[in-house]
Design goal:
Strand content: 15-25%
Oligomer: single chain
Distance between the termini: 54 Å
Strand order of the largest sheet: 1-2-6-3-5-4
Helix content: 40-55%
Number of helices: 19
Protein backbone atom coordinates (compact mmCIF):
# COMPACT_ATOMS: atom_id res chain seq x y z
CA UNK A 1 0.00 0.00 0.00
CA UNK A 2 2.84 2.39 0.89
CA UNK A 3 4.61 1.60 -2.39
CA UNK A 4 1.45 2.43 -4.34
CA UNK A 5 1.11 5.77 -2.56
CA UNK A 6 4.69 6.72 -3.43
CA UNK A 7 4.11 5.62 -6.98
CA UNK A 8 1.03 7.83 -7.36
CA UNK A 9 2.96 10.81 -6.04
CA UNK A 10 6.05 10.17 -8.19
CA UNK A 11 6.76 10.92 -11.77
CA UNK A 12 5.74 8.86 -14.76
CA UNK A 13 9.30 7.57 -14.94
CA UNK A 14 9.06 6.37 -11.34
CA UNK A 15 5.83 4.55 -12.09
CA UNK A 16 7.41 2.91 -15.09
CA UNK A 17 10.38 1.74 -13.04
CA UNK A 18 8.21 0.38 -10.24
CA UNK A 19 5.44 -1.26 -12.20
CA UNK A 20 7.01 -1.75 -15.61
CA UNK A 21 5.24 -1.29 -18.96
CA UNK A 22 1.71 -2.56 -19.29
CA UNK A 23 1.44 -5.71 -21.43
CA UNK A 24 -0.53 -5.45 -24.62
CA UNK A 25 -3.95 -7.07 -25.03
CA UNK A 26 -2.44 -9.61 -27.42
CA UNK A 27 0.18 -10.58 -24.83
CA UNK A 28 -2.48 -10.96 -22.14
CA UNK A 29 -4.50 -13.21 -24.44
CA UNK A 30 -1.41 -15.29 -25.19
CA UNK A 31 -0.65 -15.60 -21.48
CA UNK A 32 -4.18 -16.76 -20.72
CA UNK A 33 -4.00 -19.35 -23.51
CA UNK A 34 -0.63 -20.52 -22.25
CA UNK A 35 -2.07 -20.90 -18.73
CA UNK A 36 -5.04 -22.92 -19.98
CA UNK A 37 -2.73 -25.14 -22.03
CA UNK A 38 -0.51 -25.65 -19.01
CA UNK A 39 -3.48 -26.86 -16.96
CA UNK A 40 -4.52 -29.30 -19.69
CA UNK A 41 -0.96 -30.55 -20.06
CA UNK A 42 -0.70 -30.95 -16.30
CA UNK A 43 -3.73 -33.24 -16.29
CA UNK A 44 -2.29 -35.39 -19.06
CA UNK A 45 1.29 -35.47 -17.76
CA UNK A 46 0.62 -36.55 -14.19
CA UNK A 47 2.97 -39.38 -13.16
CA UNK A 48 1.53 -42.83 -13.67
CA UNK A 49 0.30 -44.71 -10.62
CA UNK A 50 1.82 -48.18 -10.67
CA UNK A 51 0.05 -50.98 -8.80
CA UNK A 52 1.34 -54.48 -8.04
CA UNK A 53 -0.53 -57.16 -6.08
CA UNK A 54 1.64 -59.58 -4.12
CA UNK A 55 0.87 -63.28 -3.74
CA UNK A 56 -0.64 -62.75 -0.27
CA UNK A 57 -3.06 -60.12 -1.60
CA UNK A 58 -1.22 -57.00 -0.47
CA UNK A 59 -1.55 -54.18 -3.01
CA UNK A 60 1.58 -52.08 -3.54
CA UNK A 61 1.03 -48.73 -5.29
CA UNK A 62 3.29 -45.78 -5.98
CA UNK A 63 3.68 -42.55 -7.89
CA UNK A 64 7.24 -41.62 -8.78
CA UNK A 65 8.43 -38.00 -8.89
CA UNK A 66 11.65 -36.06 -8.49
CA UNK A 67 11.05 -35.09 -4.87
CA UNK A 68 14.01 -35.50 -2.50
CA UNK A 69 11.60 -36.92 0.08
CA UNK A 70 8.95 -39.60 0.04
CA UNK A 71 5.92 -40.69 2.04
CA UNK A 72 5.34 -44.40 2.57
CA UNK A 73 2.28 -45.70 4.39
CA UNK A 74 0.00 -48.65 5.09
CA UNK A 75 -3.75 -48.08 4.77
CA UNK A 76 -6.00 -50.77 6.21
CA UNK A 77 -9.70 -51.31 5.65
CA UNK A 78 -10.51 -51.24 9.36
CA UNK A 79 -12.11 -48.71 11.68
CA UNK A 80 -14.90 -48.09 14.15
CA UNK A 81 -17.53 -49.32 11.66
CA UNK A 82 -16.11 -52.83 12.07
CA UNK A 83 -16.58 -52.76 15.86
CA UNK A 84 -19.55 -53.76 17.99
CA UNK A 85 -20.92 -51.71 20.92
CA UNK A 86 -18.76 -53.62 23.42
CA UNK A 87 -15.47 -53.21 21.53
CA UNK A 88 -16.07 -49.70 20.18
CA UNK A 89 -12.76 -47.88 20.57
CA UNK A 90 -10.51 -50.88 19.87
CA UNK A 91 -9.25 -49.46 16.55
CA UNK A 92 -8.36 -46.14 18.18
CA UNK A 93 -6.63 -47.96 21.05
CA UNK A 94 -4.65 -50.12 18.59
CA UNK A 95 -3.51 -46.99 16.74
CA UNK A 96 -2.13 -45.57 19.99
CA UNK A 97 -0.43 -48.84 20.93
CA UNK A 98 1.08 -49.44 17.49
CA UNK A 99 3.13 -46.26 17.77
CA UNK A 100 4.54 -47.31 21.16
CA UNK A 101 6.84 -50.15 20.19
CA UNK A 102 6.89 -53.59 18.60
CA UNK A 103 8.14 -57.03 19.60
CA UNK A 104 11.41 -56.39 17.73
CA UNK A 105 11.74 -52.78 18.85
CA UNK A 106 10.19 -52.53 22.33
CA UNK A 107 9.27 -49.30 24.08
CA UNK A 108 11.02 -46.17 22.84
CA UNK A 109 13.40 -48.11 20.56
CA UNK A 110 10.93 -47.86 17.70
CA UNK A 111 10.56 -44.08 18.07
CA UNK A 112 14.34 -43.62 18.35
CA UNK A 113 14.91 -45.55 15.12
CA UNK A 114 12.39 -43.36 13.30
CA UNK A 115 14.02 -40.24 14.71
CA UNK A 116 17.47 -41.45 13.68
CA UNK A 117 16.28 -41.25 10.06
CA UNK A 118 15.03 -37.71 10.58
CA UNK A 119 11.64 -39.09 9.59
CA UNK A 120 8.12 -38.26 10.69
CA UNK A 121 5.78 -41.08 11.79
CA UNK A 122 2.05 -40.59 12.12
CA UNK A 123 -1.22 -42.48 12.04
CA UNK A 124 -4.96 -41.99 12.22
CA UNK A 125 -8.17 -43.95 12.56
CA UNK A 126 -11.52 -43.18 10.93
CA UNK A 127 -14.79 -45.06 10.67
CA UNK A 128 -13.61 -47.22 7.78
CA UNK A 129 -9.83 -46.80 7.63
CA UNK A 130 -6.71 -47.09 9.77
CA UNK A 131 -3.44 -45.64 8.48
CA UNK A 132 0.21 -45.48 9.48
CA UNK A 133 2.70 -43.52 7.36
CA UNK A 134 6.27 -42.26 7.44
CA UNK A 135 7.68 -39.21 5.66
CA UNK A 136 11.41 -39.60 5.12
CA UNK A 137 14.24 -38.96 2.68
CA UNK A 138 13.83 -40.89 -0.56
CA UNK A 139 16.98 -42.94 0.05
CA UNK A 140 15.46 -44.23 3.32
CA UNK A 141 12.36 -45.71 1.65
CA UNK A 142 13.39 -49.39 2.19
CA UNK A 143 13.98 -48.71 5.89
CA UNK A 144 10.61 -46.98 6.16
CA UNK A 145 8.91 -50.04 4.63
CA UNK A 146 10.66 -52.28 7.15
CA UNK A 147 9.54 -50.10 10.07
CA UNK A 148 5.94 -50.06 8.83
CA UNK A 149 5.90 -53.83 8.38
CA UNK A 150 7.20 -54.27 11.94
CA UNK A 151 4.56 -51.88 13.25
CA UNK A 152 1.69 -53.67 11.48
CA UNK A 153 2.79 -57.27 12.00
CA UNK A 154 4.55 -57.21 15.36
CA UNK A 155 2.73 -54.67 17.52
CA UNK A 156 3.72 -55.48 21.11
CA UNK A 157 0.47 -54.52 22.88
CA UNK A 158 2.20 -54.73 26.28
CA UNK A 159 -0.04 -54.62 29.36
CA UNK A 160 2.10 -51.97 31.08
CA UNK A 161 2.04 -49.74 28.01
CA UNK A 162 -1.73 -50.26 27.68
CA UNK A 163 -2.32 -48.76 31.12
CA UNK A 164 -0.28 -45.69 30.20
CA UNK A 165 -2.13 -45.25 26.92
CA UNK A 166 -5.47 -45.79 28.63
CA UNK A 167 -4.83 -42.69 30.74
CA UNK A 168 -3.78 -40.74 27.64
CA UNK A 169 -6.88 -41.77 25.68
CA UNK A 170 -9.25 -40.93 28.53
CA UNK A 171 -7.66 -37.49 28.71
CA UNK A 172 -8.09 -37.08 24.94
CA UNK A 173 -11.77 -37.96 25.26
CA UNK A 174 -12.22 -35.18 27.81
CA UNK A 175 -10.50 -32.71 25.49
CA UNK A 176 -12.62 -33.81 22.52
CA UNK A 177 -15.78 -33.03 24.48
CA UNK A 178 -14.78 -29.36 24.40
CA UNK A 179 -14.64 -29.33 20.58
CA UNK A 180 -18.31 -28.70 19.88
CA UNK A 181 -17.94 -29.14 16.13
CA UNK A 182 -16.68 -32.71 16.58
CA UNK A 183 -19.34 -33.35 19.23
CA UNK A 184 -22.05 -32.16 16.83
CA UNK A 185 -20.87 -34.47 14.05
CA UNK A 186 -20.67 -37.43 16.43
CA UNK A 187 -24.25 -36.71 17.46
CA UNK A 188 -25.21 -36.44 13.78
CA UNK A 189 -23.85 -39.92 13.09
CA UNK A 190 -25.48 -41.25 16.26
CA UNK A 191 -28.93 -40.13 15.19
CA UNK A 192 -28.63 -40.62 11.41
CA UNK A 193 -27.30 -44.17 11.75
CA UNK A 194 -28.88 -45.13 15.04
CA UNK A 195 -28.74 -48.83 15.78
CA UNK A 196 -25.90 -49.42 13.28
CA UNK A 197 -22.11 -49.47 13.49
CA UNK A 198 -21.73 -46.06 11.83
CA UNK A 199 -23.34 -44.55 14.92
CA UNK A 200 -20.17 -45.41 16.89
CA UNK A 201 -17.63 -42.72 17.57
CA UNK A 202 -14.11 -43.40 16.32
CA UNK A 203 -12.59 -42.95 19.78
CA UNK A 204 -15.07 -45.16 21.61
CA UNK A 205 -16.82 -44.50 24.89
CA UNK A 206 -15.18 -43.81 28.24
CA UNK A 207 -16.60 -47.02 29.71
CA UNK A 208 -15.27 -49.10 26.81
CA UNK A 209 -11.79 -47.62 27.08
CA UNK A 210 -11.74 -48.35 30.80
CA UNK A 211 -12.78 -51.99 30.19
CA UNK A 212 -10.61 -52.63 27.12
CA UNK A 213 -8.22 -55.56 27.58
CA UNK A 214 -5.22 -56.82 25.66
CA UNK A 215 -7.39 -59.69 24.40
CA UNK A 216 -9.75 -57.24 22.70
CA UNK A 217 -6.87 -55.55 20.87
CA UNK A 218 -5.20 -58.82 19.84
CA UNK A 219 -8.51 -60.11 18.48
CA UNK A 220 -9.05 -56.88 16.54
CA UNK A 221 -5.57 -56.99 14.96
CA UNK A 222 -5.82 -60.71 14.12
CA UNK A 223 -9.18 -60.15 12.44
CA UNK A 224 -8.52 -57.00 10.43
CA UNK A 225 -4.81 -56.63 9.75
CA UNK A 226 -4.83 -58.95 6.73
CA UNK A 227 -2.89 -58.50 3.49
CA UNK A 228 -5.94 -58.29 1.15
CA UNK A 229 -7.32 -55.49 3.35
CA UNK A 230 -4.10 -53.47 3.14
CA UNK A 231 -2.55 -51.06 0.66
CA UNK A 232 1.14 -50.16 0.85
CA UNK A 233 1.38 -46.79 -0.90
CA UNK A 234 4.32 -44.50 -1.61
CA UNK A 235 4.84 -41.16 -3.34
CA UNK A 236 7.93 -39.07 -4.00
CA UNK A 237 11.44 -39.81 -5.19
CA UNK A 238 11.12 -43.58 -5.11
CA UNK A 239 11.28 -46.52 -7.51
CA UNK A 240 8.23 -48.76 -7.77
CA UNK A 241 10.45 -51.78 -8.42
CA UNK A 242 12.40 -51.12 -5.21
CA UNK A 243 9.15 -50.60 -3.30
CA UNK A 244 7.78 -53.95 -4.50
CA UNK A 245 11.02 -55.72 -3.58
CA UNK A 246 10.94 -54.18 -0.09
CA UNK A 247 7.28 -55.18 0.29
CA UNK A 248 8.01 -58.78 -0.72
CA UNK A 249 10.84 -58.90 1.80
CA UNK A 250 9.05 -57.37 4.78
CA UNK A 251 5.30 -57.87 4.21
CA UNK A 252 5.29 -61.63 3.74
CA UNK A 253 3.79 -62.15 7.19
CA UNK A 254 0.14 -61.03 6.95
CA UNK A 255 -1.79 -64.16 5.90
CA UNK A 256 -3.99 -64.16 2.82
CA UNK A 257 -7.11 -65.43 4.56
CA UNK A 258 -8.78 -64.78 7.89
CA UNK A 259 -9.09 -67.49 10.48
CA UNK A 260 -12.24 -69.59 10.29
CA UNK A 261 -15.40 -67.53 10.04
CA UNK A 262 -13.77 -64.28 11.22
CA UNK A 263 -13.84 -62.62 7.79
CA UNK A 264 -14.95 -59.01 8.47
CA UNK A 265 -18.09 -58.00 6.61
CA UNK A 266 -19.88 -54.68 6.42
CA UNK A 267 -23.56 -54.67 7.26
CA UNK A 268 -25.81 -52.18 5.58
CA UNK A 269 -26.16 -49.06 7.77
CA UNK A 270 -29.72 -47.77 7.72
CA UNK A 271 -30.22 -43.98 7.56
CA UNK A 272 -32.96 -42.61 9.83
CA UNK A 273 -34.39 -39.12 9.59
CA UNK A 274 -34.28 -37.98 13.21
CA UNK A 275 -32.67 -35.52 15.59
CA UNK A 276 -30.53 -35.12 18.70
CA UNK A 277 -30.71 -31.90 20.70
CA UNK A 278 -28.22 -31.18 23.49
CA UNK A 279 -29.45 -27.84 24.79
CA UNK A 280 -27.03 -25.89 26.99
CA UNK A 281 -27.91 -22.22 27.42
CA UNK A 282 -24.61 -21.66 29.21
CA UNK A 283 -22.72 -21.92 25.94
CA UNK A 284 -22.25 -18.75 23.87
CA UNK A 285 -22.91 -20.22 20.39
CA UNK A 286 -25.15 -22.86 18.83
CA UNK A 287 -23.64 -25.62 16.67
CA UNK A 288 -26.11 -27.18 14.26
CA UNK A 289 -25.69 -29.81 11.54
CA UNK A 290 -28.38 -31.01 9.15
CA UNK A 291 -27.88 -33.83 6.65
CA UNK A 292 -29.71 -36.16 4.31
CA UNK A 293 -28.48 -39.55 3.16
CA UNK A 294 -25.87 -39.19 0.46
CA UNK A 295 -24.25 -41.69 -1.93
CA UNK A 296 -21.33 -44.01 -1.22
CA UNK A 297 -17.78 -43.45 -2.43
CA UNK A 298 -18.11 -45.06 -5.85
CA UNK A 299 -21.39 -43.39 -6.85
CA UNK A 300 -20.93 -40.94 -9.78
CA UNK A 301 -23.44 -38.57 -8.15
CA UNK A 302 -20.67 -37.53 -5.77
CA UNK A 303 -19.10 -35.29 -8.40
CA UNK A 304 -22.39 -33.45 -8.93
CA UNK A 305 -22.95 -33.05 -5.19
CA UNK A 306 -19.42 -31.68 -4.79
CA UNK A 307 -20.23 -29.04 -7.41
CA UNK A 308 -23.50 -28.32 -5.58
CA UNK A 309 -21.60 -27.75 -2.33
CA UNK A 310 -19.26 -25.39 -4.17
CA UNK A 311 -22.29 -23.38 -5.26
CA UNK A 312 -23.41 -23.07 -1.65
CA UNK A 313 -19.87 -22.08 -0.69
CA UNK A 314 -18.51 -21.60 2.80
CA UNK A 315 -18.20 -18.63 5.09
CA UNK A 316 -16.40 -17.46 8.19
CA UNK A 317 -16.40 -14.03 9.79
CA UNK A 318 -12.64 -13.88 9.29
CA UNK A 319 -13.08 -14.00 5.49
CA UNK A 320 -12.70 -10.82 3.48
CA UNK A 321 -15.14 -9.69 0.83
CA UNK A 322 -18.00 -8.57 3.04
CA UNK A 323 -21.25 -8.54 1.07
CA UNK A 324 -19.41 -9.17 -2.19
CA UNK A 325 -19.38 -12.93 -1.85
CA UNK A 326 -19.93 -15.26 -4.79
CA UNK A 327 -22.02 -17.47 -2.51
CA UNK A 328 -25.60 -16.25 -2.11
CA UNK A 329 -25.84 -17.81 1.34
CA UNK A 330 -22.61 -16.12 2.42
CA UNK A 331 -23.96 -12.78 1.22
CA UNK A 332 -27.12 -13.26 3.28
CA UNK A 333 -25.04 -14.28 6.29
CA UNK A 334 -23.03 -11.05 6.08
CA UNK A 335 -25.98 -8.74 5.37
CA UNK A 336 -28.16 -10.07 8.19
CA UNK A 337 -25.49 -11.27 10.61
CA UNK A 338 -26.90 -14.80 10.47
CA UNK A 339 -23.93 -16.85 11.65
CA UNK A 340 -20.28 -16.91 12.63
CA UNK A 341 -19.49 -19.61 10.06
CA UNK A 342 -21.08 -22.26 7.87
CA UNK A 343 -19.76 -25.04 5.68
CA UNK A 344 -21.41 -27.73 3.55
CA UNK A 345 -20.08 -31.28 3.70
CA UNK A 346 -20.35 -34.56 1.83
CA UNK A 347 -19.08 -37.37 4.06
CA UNK A 348 -18.84 -40.65 2.15
CA UNK A 349 -18.61 -44.26 3.28
CA UNK A 350 -18.58 -47.54 1.36
CA UNK A 351 -22.33 -47.74 0.76
CA UNK A 352 -23.84 -44.56 2.17
CA UNK A 353 -22.99 -41.00 3.14
CA UNK A 354 -24.07 -37.77 4.81
CA UNK A 355 -24.73 -34.74 2.62
CA UNK A 356 -25.49 -31.58 4.55
CA UNK A 357 -24.31 -28.36 6.15
CA UNK A 358 -23.03 -27.24 9.53
CA UNK A 359 -23.21 -23.72 10.97
CA UNK A 360 -22.33 -21.86 14.15
CA UNK A 361 -24.54 -18.95 15.13
CA UNK A 362 -25.73 -16.73 17.95
CA UNK A 363 -28.77 -18.05 19.88
CA UNK A 364 -31.15 -15.51 18.34
CA UNK A 365 -30.05 -16.18 14.75
CA UNK A 366 -30.60 -19.94 14.65
CA UNK A 367 -34.05 -19.85 13.05
CA UNK A 368 -33.10 -17.30 10.37
CA UNK A 369 -29.92 -19.14 9.43
CA UNK A 370 -31.69 -22.48 9.19
CA UNK A 371 -34.43 -20.91 7.05
CA UNK A 372 -31.87 -19.42 4.63
CA UNK A 373 -29.77 -22.59 4.47
CA UNK A 374 -32.74 -24.83 3.71
CA UNK A 375 -33.94 -22.25 1.19
CA UNK A 376 -30.58 -22.48 -0.56
CA UNK A 377 -31.02 -26.24 -0.76
CA UNK A 378 -34.43 -25.79 -2.36
CA UNK A 379 -32.93 -23.32 -4.82
CA UNK A 380 -30.32 -25.90 -5.82
CA UNK A 381 -33.13 -28.34 -6.54
CA UNK A 382 -35.24 -25.95 -8.58
CA UNK A 383 -33.34 -23.00 -10.07
CA UNK A 384 -29.58 -23.54 -10.26
CA UNK A 385 -28.07 -21.45 -13.08
CA UNK A 386 -25.32 -22.29 -15.56
CA UNK A 387 -23.17 -19.38 -14.39
CA UNK A 388 -23.20 -20.69 -10.83
CA UNK A 389 -22.26 -24.16 -12.03
CA UNK A 390 -19.38 -22.81 -14.14
CA UNK A 391 -17.94 -20.93 -11.15
CA UNK A 392 -18.39 -23.93 -8.87
CA UNK A 393 -16.67 -26.28 -11.33
CA UNK A 394 -13.62 -24.02 -11.43
CA UNK A 395 -13.55 -24.02 -7.64
CA UNK A 396 -13.73 -27.83 -7.54
CA UNK A 397 -10.94 -28.14 -10.11
CA UNK A 398 -8.73 -25.85 -8.04
CA UNK A 399 -9.45 -27.84 -4.87
CA UNK A 400 -8.79 -31.11 -6.70
CA UNK A 401 -5.31 -30.03 -7.80
CA UNK A 402 -4.49 -28.40 -4.45
CA UNK A 403 -5.17 -31.70 -2.65
CA UNK A 404 -2.17 -33.24 -4.40
CA UNK A 405 0.34 -30.73 -3.06
CA UNK A 406 3.08 -32.73 -1.32
CA UNK A 407 4.00 -36.41 -1.13
CA UNK A 408 1.86 -37.14 1.94
CA UNK A 409 -1.36 -35.99 0.30
CA UNK A 410 -0.55 -37.88 -2.89
CA UNK A 411 0.26 -41.04 -0.93
CA UNK A 412 -3.02 -40.85 0.98
CA UNK A 413 -4.91 -40.17 -2.23
CA UNK A 414 -3.43 -43.27 -3.88
CA UNK A 415 -4.26 -45.57 -0.96
CA UNK A 416 -7.77 -44.18 -0.45
CA UNK A 417 -8.62 -44.59 -4.13
CA UNK A 418 -7.50 -48.22 -4.11
CA UNK A 419 -9.57 -48.97 -1.01
CA UNK A 420 -12.67 -47.07 -2.21
CA UNK A 421 -12.64 -47.53 -6.00
CA UNK A 422 -10.26 -50.44 -6.56
CA UNK A 423 -8.04 -48.21 -8.72
CA UNK A 424 -6.40 -44.79 -8.79
CA UNK A 425 -8.63 -42.45 -10.77
CA UNK A 426 -6.43 -40.04 -12.77
CA UNK A 427 -6.94 -36.27 -12.63
CA UNK A 428 -7.82 -36.20 -16.32
CA UNK A 429 -10.79 -38.48 -15.66
CA UNK A 430 -11.89 -36.39 -12.67
CA UNK A 431 -11.70 -33.26 -14.82
CA UNK A 432 -13.83 -34.90 -17.51
CA UNK A 433 -16.46 -35.84 -14.90
CA UNK A 434 -16.49 -32.29 -13.56
CA UNK A 435 -16.76 -30.80 -17.05
CA UNK A 436 -19.80 -32.97 -17.79
CA UNK A 437 -21.80 -31.40 -14.95
CA UNK A 438 -24.39 -28.81 -15.98
CA UNK A 439 -27.19 -26.94 -14.24
CA UNK A 440 -29.87 -29.51 -15.10
CA UNK A 441 -27.71 -32.29 -13.69
CA UNK A 442 -27.24 -30.35 -10.44
CA UNK A 443 -30.98 -29.75 -10.16
CA UNK A 444 -31.81 -33.41 -10.86
CA UNK A 445 -29.22 -34.92 -8.49
CA UNK A 446 -30.02 -32.46 -5.68
CA UNK A 447 -33.71 -33.25 -6.08
CA UNK A 448 -32.87 -36.94 -5.85
CA UNK A 449 -31.06 -36.62 -2.51
CA UNK A 450 -32.53 -33.49 -0.91
CA UNK A 451 -36.04 -32.66 -2.10
CA UNK A 452 -38.77 -33.94 0.26
CA UNK A 453 -36.32 -36.17 2.17
CA UNK A 454 -36.27 -36.67 5.94
CA UNK A 455 -33.13 -35.02 7.37
CA UNK A 456 -31.01 -35.95 10.36
CA UNK A 457 -30.32 -33.04 12.70
CA UNK A 458 -27.82 -32.58 15.52
CA UNK A 459 -27.80 -29.42 17.63
CA UNK A 460 -25.63 -28.42 20.59
CA UNK A 461 -25.68 -25.30 22.74
CA UNK A 462 -28.31 -22.55 23.17
CA UNK A 463 -30.78 -23.94 20.63
CA UNK A 464 -34.11 -22.81 22.07
CA UNK A 465 -34.86 -21.05 18.77
CA UNK A 466 -34.39 -24.21 16.69
CA UNK A 467 -37.82 -25.13 15.37
CA UNK A 468 -39.59 -28.45 15.93
CA UNK A 469 -38.43 -31.33 13.70
CA UNK A 470 -41.74 -31.40 11.80
CA UNK A 471 -41.33 -27.73 10.89
CA UNK A 472 -37.80 -28.35 9.66
CA UNK A 473 -39.02 -31.37 7.71
CA UNK A 474 -41.69 -29.26 6.02
CA UNK A 475 -38.96 -26.92 4.73
CA UNK A 476 -37.49 -29.77 2.68
CA UNK A 477 -39.93 -29.03 -0.14
CA UNK A 478 -41.68 -26.04 -1.69
CA UNK A 479 -45.42 -25.84 -2.35
CA UNK A 480 -45.40 -24.52 -5.92
CA UNK A 481 -48.46 -23.58 -7.95
Amino acid sequence: MAARSVCRAGSAAGRALLWGPRPSAALLTLTRKRGAATYAQTLQNMPETQVTTLENGLRVASEESNHPTCTVGVWIKAGSRYEDPKTNGAAFFVEHMALKGTKKRPGSDFEKEVESLGAHLNGYTSREQTAFYIKALSKDMPKAVELLSDLVQNCALEESQMEKERVVILQELKEMDSNLTDVTFDYLHATAYQGTSLAHTVEGTTDNIKRMTRGHLVSYVDTHFKAPRMVLAAAGGISHKELVEAAKQHFSGPPFTSKGDSVPTLRRCRFTGSEIRARDDGLPLAHIALAVEGPGWADPDNVVLTVANAIIGRYDRTFGGGKNQSSKLATLAVEHNLCHSFEPFNTCYSDTGLFGFHFVSDPLSVDDMMFCAQGEWMRLCTSTTESEVARAKNYVRNAMVAQLDGTTRVCENIASHLLHYGRRIPLEEWDARISAVDAKMVRDVCSKYIYDKCPAIAAVGPIEQLLDYNRLRSAMYWVRL
